[in-house]
């Protein structure tokens, strides 16, 4: 099964570039930029990982971002992820980035996106990994800040395929960002939002994503299974759900294999993704292997999940056909 998983050309639709920041790179960049994070070695960084829910993860994730200072840092972060992706036989990625995590520390939007974009170009050329970037807003910041960042992104519109919403979901419902997402759609961006696992009011958040925001994809969305009408609507709209099994294991202590199978049975379109692979210590192939190990997934189930990723991706239909 390992070889089968490794040999399949795959797509990844839910990976935070800042979540691919490996401890060796955090350490080296902090050192060269003179940023004091308080760790003596990469091993000390790993030893400090203690993720058991979303807030415990996010605190660490934002702290490590301080090591990223220059355009070259963003280039190296991004290119290193694409090298990992190529090693996993990923041929297409729609990675997320969190500009507010950087502008809030005085790093310009241009610094961030120029570094990322150059790495995307080089990865396509040198590694054969194609990608389209998704800009995420931090939902625990204000809607005004999100709107400002939407404005900042407009000169780079051709480099960004869509917008998403991430960070701490508690008391930060989709509706808080309705005006921002309406404007994003008018500017030509595709729309997705995190509906993280087992968050407060999560079923109503997913309904808001459908009825008020009109998203074109849902990130996570595991809890849609609590509502039959919601499942039916997601299936009818053929909305992809970007599921992250190892991330779920950290955040809610289950790989959610039963839930993934239920979605497949109901005609929904779950896909498999890594979320924050450097922190959760599992890239995409590891996530598929977890389904085999913890849920006894078959080759045909794996194949269906891989096919779903290309189908619900935001590739042009003509480009999709080459992969399906
Ligand atoms: C995230 Cl696991 C998760 N949930 C919400 N926001 C995030 N940003 C990066 N990883
Ligand atoms: Zn995520």
**Approximately how much helix is present in the residues?**
40-55%
Give the CA-based shape. Answer: globular
Strand content: 5-15%
Question: Pairing-aware structural class of the strands and helices?
Answer: alpha/beta
Instruction: Report how far the terminal alpha carbons are from each other.
Output: 21 Å
What does this molecule look like?
The structure is a single chain. This protein has helices spanning 2-7, 23-33, 42-48, 54-65, 71-87, 100-103, 109-127, 143-153, 178-186, 202-213, 228-236, 245-252, 257-265, 277-280, 284-295, 299-311, 317-321, and strands spanning 10-12, 90-93, 96-97, 130-131, 133-138, 160-166, 190-195, 217-220, 240-243, 269-272. It is of the alpha/beta class and 324 residues long. It has one domain: Metal-dependent hydrolases (TIM Barrel). Strands 3-5-6-7-8-9-10 form a seven-stranded parallel β-sheet. Strand 7 (190-195), helix 10 and strand 8 (217-220) form a beta-alpha-beta unit. The mean pLDDT is 97. The site of zinc ion has 6 residues, from loops.
Per-chain topology:
Layout lengths: L1 H6 L2 E3 L10 H11 L8 H7 L5 H12 L5 H17 L2 E4 L2 E2 L2 H4 L5 H19 L2 E2 L1 E6 L4 H11 L6 E7 L11 H9 L3 E6 L6 H12 L3 E4 L7 H9 L3 E4 L1 H8 L4 H9 L3 E4 L4 H4 L3 H12 L3 H13 L5 H5 L3
Helix pairs in contact: 2-3, 5-7, 8-9
Bound molecules: 6-chloro-9H-purine (ES4) and zinc ion.
